[in-house]
Design brief:
Keywords: Membrane, Transmembrane, Transmembrane helix. It contains 3 helices and no strands. The chain is an all-alpha fold and 106 residues long. The chain has one domain. α1 runs antiparallel to α2. The termini are far apart.
Amino acid sequence: MNELMQMAGAISDANSLVSQLKDFFLVGVLGLMYVVSIAFVWGQTKSVLKAGVAAIGGAVVLAIVVNMTVLRDKIGEDIKNPSGGTAAPVAVRVVDHIDPLDGGRR
């Protein structure tokens, strides 16, 4: 029984380590890449506008990566239920084709 308790503790520790590594990569590595990309654009162009565009683009990418699970769930729901349950039912009216030569008269 003691071995099972130790195994449960080891699994819990592994899960905690994986969570910490994920946070490190999200915050540390992606943050460093964000800053380096802005610095690279600034170094190449010396343009505040281009560096600002790089900053905004990088912020969008970071937001998508950080919120990936929320976006995945939202997109999945949109695919399953395209109308979102808020659209009213639509009535369709079928109209016979009118011949342009005689204007529909027979």
